[in-house]
Design brief:
By secondary structure, the protein is mostly beta strands. Helices cover 10% and strands 33% of the residues. It has two domains: 31 residues, no CATH class; 74 residues, RNA polymerase II/Efflux pump adaptor protein, barrel-sandwich hybrid domain (OB fold (Dihydrolipoamide Acetyltransferase, E2P)). Strand 6 and strand 7 form a beta hairpin. It is elongated and about 50 Å long.
Amino acid sequence: MASFDIDGELVRKLADLLRETGLTEVEFAEGDRRIRVTRHAAVAAVSVAPPPLAVPTAARPGQGPQVPPGAVTSPMVGTAYVAAEPGAPPFVKPGDPVKTGQTVMIIEAMKVMNPIKAPRGGIVTQVLVADAQPVEFGEVLLIIE
């Protein structure tokens, strides 16, 4: 049987990441070694968000749709979550001020929760995805003005 040395410092860093982001689980894999840190929370009812608003985009001849100014786009394909866990308040909602680097959403991709950070400060004017909605790479998630 192979021995598996626990990297205590890595576990502490992952636990700190859970606290900072409000996530309930994070996993780190390197080669055949895998460390998962979870934080259990009370199970709450899932709320259904209204359908997202359409984002008008203007296309130039010969180019694809233009991303609106202040748009925060998805850096990956996955499932978007607007709150840290079911039943929790959303990270942001229209009218909320945000600071650069603030977590505004989570995208789950391949069972890894990826915090989406605000690229700049401002006011959230639109949230364009519902909780647990599948998203594509480059899809507009929200707009900060």
